[in-house]
Amino acid sequence: MHLPPTQNEAVVHITNLTSSSISFSLLPNRIPSFHDQPSTDTLTNSCDTLSVDRVLPRSTTSKSFTKAKGGPLNIHLTSHTSTSISSSEKIGSVEKSADISVSDVSLSTHTICLEKGKRGLKWGGKSWEVETVGESWRVYKTKIAKREYQMLILEQRNLAGFLGELPDEISLAAVVLPGTHDTMALYDVRLSLIKDRLIAYHGIYPQRTPFASILSTLFTFLSSPQSSNETLVISIKQEDFMTTPWLKFSTAVLEEIKESEGGLDMWYLEDRIPTLGEVRGKCVLFSRFGGDGSGWDGGLNGMGIHPKTWPDSEKEGFEWDCSGVTVRTHDWYNIPSFLSIPEKTQLATEILLPPSSQSVSAQTLNIAFFSAASFPLAFPPTIARGFGFPKIGLGVEGVNARVGKWLLDILSSTSFKSRGEKESEKLQYEMNEVGRRVRGWPLLDFFQDPEDNGVVPLLVECNFRGRVSGEEGWP
C-alpha cells in the first residue's frame, strides 16, 4: 500500500526512461538511508541503480529519504554505461570463451533541487516543471503532495527528427505527431484568399504569412540531409468560406503547390493513411476544403486524407472512415467558458487512448484538437495557458499544463495525488493492457507554454513506449 511520508521524510518516485543506468543519492546534509516502497528492506549504501531498456519496459521506484528539517532537498544523479568484452582462448583442442562486463561510471553528474527549504516548491501555478540537464536529459518534477514528489528522467530527443528513429513499416495512425511549429511533424494551416493570394489566418485573427512562404519552409526542411527522412502532415482548412467560393479557394491551393519548390511531387495525395516509409521526405495533405474535388486528379481521392464529415464543435467527438481506417476526432472548440477547461482536456486526451475493447490489429487514427475559445470569457491564450494562481485556488490551470500532467502520469506509471491505491492500480493496469497506448495526432495552441515547450517532448516520447514486436509495424 502507498504510505505517506512521516514528518521528517520526503518520498520521491523516480522513473528512468533513458538508455543509461542512473544512480541517485542524497547530497551531504541528509541521512543516507533509503527504504523501498512498499517493501521495508533497507539499503545500506547511499545510492541505487535503475537500468531500463529505451523502448519497451518502464522502471519506476519509490524511495523515502530521511532528512533533517529545513534546507533544500537535492537529488544527485549520475549516469552510467556498460560495455561487454568477449574473449576466447584455445587450450589444446578446447576453446574457452568469456564475456566480461566493464562499467564506466560517472559519465555525467547532475544535481536536481526538489524542495527549496520550508517554503517548498514554487510551481508558479503549474503542477509540474521541467529542467533541461546539459545535452542529455530532461527531468520532469511534480509535487504530488506535501513532501512527496514524482521525477521522470527522459533523454533529449531531436524534436524535429524523431521520425527518423521509427521503422518504415509503422503506419502514421500508430505514430504520435504533435501539431506544433516545433516538431515539424504536423501543421494546422488556416488560409484565406486575399487579393488572389493565400494568406495564413486563424479564425478572425490574421497571421499574415503567405502560403507561398510556408511552402518554401516545408521544402527547405524536407530537402535538408538532416531531415530528409522526416514527413510532414499538413492540415489545410479554408477560413474564408463565407466570402470565397470553395472552388476558387481549392484551385488557388492547387496552383500555389504546383508553383512552389518541389511541386506536386513533394506531396502525398492519396486518400488513405500511409506507412512512414511511403512518405519520408514528403508532405501528407490533410484537406479540410475542396467541395467535390474538382480540379484535382482523382477528385476527392486525389486530395490527400479527406474527411467525409466534420460536425461543427461536436463536444463528444465524431468518427469517419478513411479507406478502412476509423478516424476518431475531437474538435470541441466553442466551449462555454474557462470553467470548461478540465472537461475539454479530459475529452481530448481520452481520444488519444484507443477503446479498451479494440484489438491491436484494428486500424484507428486518433486526432485531438486541444485549442478552444469562449468569447468574451476566455480567449485562446487563456484556454491554453490558464491564468492566476491555481495552486492556491486563485486561478485555473490551462489545457497545456493539464495535458503535461496526464502524460507524466502515464509515462511514469504512477498517479498518486488524490487517488487511492485501487485507482492507481487501475491506471497501471490500463497502461499495460494491450492496445492502451497513447497514439494519434494532438494539436496544441501556444505549445511553448508551460515550461518553455515542456509538453512536446512528452508527446514525442510516447512514440517509443508501449511498443511490442510484431504489432503496429514494430519490428
Structural features, described:
This protein has 475 residues and is of the alpha/beta class. The chain has three domains: 9-83 and 105-155, Mutm (Fpg) Protein, Chain: A, domain 2; 158-306, TIM Barrel (Alpha-Beta Barrel); 311-475, no CATH class. The chain is 16% helix and 34% strand. The protein has seven helices and 23 strands. It has helices at 211-223, 246-259, 341-351, 380-385, 399-412, 421-432, 456-461, and strands at 9-16, 21-26, 30-36, 42-43, 48-50, 60-67, 73-91, 94-115, 128-133, 137-145, 148-155, 186-194, 197-202, 205-210, 232-238, 267-268, 283-288, 318-322, 325-330, 364-369, 386-389, 394-397, 441-443. A seven-stranded mixed sheet has the order 4-3-6-1-11-10-9, with helices on one face. Strands 14-13-12-15-17-16 form a six-stranded mixed sheet. The longest helix is centred in the middle third of the chain and has 14 residues, at 246-259. The protein starts with 8 loop residues before the first strand and ends in a 14-residue tail after the last helix. The relative contact order is 0.13.
